[in-house]
């Protein structure tokens, strides 16, 4: 039997909306699980994924982008991000190259600072590294000036040290879209995680169901194809997902929920063109996930103000 001891732990991925958290996670586990778009609120729930190799097992917790809550759905998203800190063995704070620390980043620094202080109180051994915090500078391929990356590190490092009383245990510079620096980051994460058990079977990738992932793919295509405020008022429910008896096809029926009749018309589009485009793009992603042909049918329903109504939020999975 091998004497090599395995590392394991839960790693929270935090950051402002649209800094690339979900893209990083998808690359690290080698499979698209979380929806990705350039719009805020793409990730609405905490999404848990699992990476296992010879070194051990990392459970990544992708959180909604931390931002001011303006609806009950926004409150749910913020709570999901904050609660994740309480169960994490390590925190990855994802930022973009910048020397400006805005209100959103300051709030994240405050949350991390509180989490670190709380863990210190529970463990009096100050020599132990408790819940290490890694600063992940993403989108380095977009930098025209290489010195900006070092300036970003200096700016964030001095801010958290002087304002929140903690320091980064490590810094990684990556490009999630290009895949640059991610292998090194994975090695660095293992260096900081404690020895521990495998929490999931080594073949596990996520605890999200295929229905949940399919719904996220459909919502992602809405985010990518629709303009302005419409995508933020959208939810997607998979009503039916069933493989045919001969195994030739998976039939999926899903409903896109929106808040206004005018939005419904835009989602459907002239002669159904927009709904067809969304369905076609989503179907390709779902087929890649299932490795099987898919027959996808979409409907659109109006639920005014659902983001502020607990009954609807519960029904749509935001409990």
Short description:
The chain is built from 9 helices and 9 strands. It has 319 residues and is α/β, with parallel strands linked by helices.
Explain this structure:
38% of the residues lie in helices and 20% in strands. The chain has 319 residues and is α/β, with parallel strands linked by helices. The strands form two sheets. The protein has a six-stranded mixed beta sheet with strand order 2-3-1-4-5-6, sandwiched between helices. Helix 6 (210-225) packs antiparallel against helix 8 (273-290). The longest helix is centred in the middle third of the chain and has 20 residues, at 103-122. It is globular. The N and C termini lie far apart (44 Å).
Total count of helical runs of at least 4 residues: 9
Shape: globular
Rg, alpha carbons: 21 Å
Given as residue ranges, the uncertain stretches (5+ residues, pLDDT < 50) are: 36-42
Overall helicity:
25-40%
Extended strand count:
9
- Report the mean per-residue pLDDT as an integer: 84
List the helices and strands and how they pair.
Elements: E1 7-15, H1 21-29, E2 47-53, E3 56-62, H2 72-85, E4 90-95, H3 103-122, E5 133-137, H4 147-164, E6 170-173, H5 182-192, H6 210-225, E7 235-243, E8 250-258, H7 261-268, H8 273-290, E9 294-302, H9 310-315
Parallel strand pairs: 1-3, 1-4, 4-5, 5-6, 8-9
Antiparallel strand pairs: 2-3, 7-8
Features:
three-stranded mixed β-sheet, six-stranded mixed β-sheet, single chain, 38% helix
């Amino acid at each position: 039997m091998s004497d090599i001891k395995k590392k394991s732990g839960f790693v929270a991925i935090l950051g402002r909306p649209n800094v690339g958290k979900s893209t990083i996670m998808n690359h690290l586990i080698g499979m698209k699980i979380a929806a990705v778009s350039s719009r805020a609120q793409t990730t609405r729930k905490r999404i848990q994924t699992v990476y296992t190799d010879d070194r051990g097992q990392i459970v990544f917790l992708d959180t909604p982008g931390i931002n001011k809550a303006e609806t009950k759905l926004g409150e749910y998203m913020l709570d999901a991000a904050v609660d994740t800190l309480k169960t994490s063995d390590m925190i990855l704070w994802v930022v973009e190259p910048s020397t400006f620390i805005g209100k959103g980043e300051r709030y994240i620094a405050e949350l991390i600072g509180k989490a670190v202080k709380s863990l210190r109180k529970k463990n009096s051994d100050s020599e132990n590294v408790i819940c290490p915090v890694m600063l992940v500078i993403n989108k380095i391929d977009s930098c025209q000036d290489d010195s900006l990356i070092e300036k970003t590190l200096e700016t964030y490092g001095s801010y958290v040290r002087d304002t929140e009383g903690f320091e980064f245990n490590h810094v990684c510079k990556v490009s999630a879209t290009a895949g640059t620096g991610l292998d090194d980051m994975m090695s660095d994460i293992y260096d900081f995680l404690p020895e521990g058990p495998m929490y999931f079977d080594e073949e596990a990738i996520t605890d999200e169901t295929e229905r949940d992932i399919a719904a996220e793919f459909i919502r992602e295509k809405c985010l990518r194809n629709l303009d302005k405020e419409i995508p933020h008022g959208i939810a997607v429910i998979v009503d039916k997902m069933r493989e045919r008896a001969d195994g030739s096809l998976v039939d999926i029926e899903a409903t896109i929920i929106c808040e206004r009749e005018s939005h419904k018309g835009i989602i459907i589009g002239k002669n159904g063109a927009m709904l067809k485009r969304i369905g076609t793009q989503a179907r390709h992603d779902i087929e890649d996930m299932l490795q099987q042909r898919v027959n996808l049918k979409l409907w659109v329903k109006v639920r005014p103000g659902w983001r502020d109504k607990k009954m609807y939020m519960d029904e749509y999975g935001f409990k």
